[in-house]
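Problem: given the chain below (129 residues), write out its structure.
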Amino acid sequence: MDAASVAAGMISADARRQDVWRHAIVQLLDDYTSLQRNQAPDAAQAMWADRPQPSGDRRVDAAFAALGEHLARRDGWPAPRWVRDPAPEAMPWWFVTALKGLHPRALVESPLSFRKRGIFITTGALQRA
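Solution.
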């Protein structure tokens, strides 16, 4: 999973976590969506077969697991064991948006796979063109 390498590099360079979200996690979502649309759902699902390397940040690692679980549930494929592992958890909680006024909305709108790991996003965070 190249996104994990990108995330690890950004974290080691002290990038803002919101930038890691945008350049690693959202890019991974885009890659998954592209594979699913243009090749085959099996190829997209295979992206999640192996646990990504640790990024150096518990919140980012939890976000990878949350996204994999969310996509499996949404798209109807069996989530691999590492994605179902409840251990990856954001400590402290991670509100992906820096806009504190959106935090209550993120508490309500976050998909279950993110909420249970302490990651809070608004509905638009996973909507792609």
